[in-house]
Design brief:
GO terms for molecular function: ADP binding. Helix content is about 40%, strand content about 15%. It is an alpha+beta fold. It has two domains: about 100 residues, no CATH class; about 35 residues, no CATH class.
Length: about 140
Amino acid sequence: MYIVIELYQRGHAYLSSTKRDILQEIFIKLVPERKEEVVKMRNEELFEQLYEVQQKKKCLVVLDDIWSVEAWKSLRPAFPNGNTGSKILLTTHNKALASKIDPCYFHHDLRCLNEKESWDLLEKKAMLRRDGTGNINHTTFLYIF
């Protein structure tokens, strides 16, 4: 999955496809008026154009759930490294992978929710509301079988 944020606009898509598809979709989110053109680009040209767009525009690209160093290395040339104003945020489940990608990485461990936190989240997502006493206000019901 990736998310592209440019200025205050957001675009996202869930992808389980090729490197080219991922880069094309990111490029299209950043430069929608060039959608027809990007399909015809050679791989090298796609990498160069995506790189240049990120140097000119201030954007945040989130690459979620990177599983291997090889996956990152195959995408890396399309992203500027340095003081361009654009940023790349990678997420992974693998601590060793994070340190291989960037030895100075920022590490944040997510923890699992406990039973109460899990239930509270389910209630919020299922639109059940709690009154001030912690009791469920049964204006909306959720039945799970």
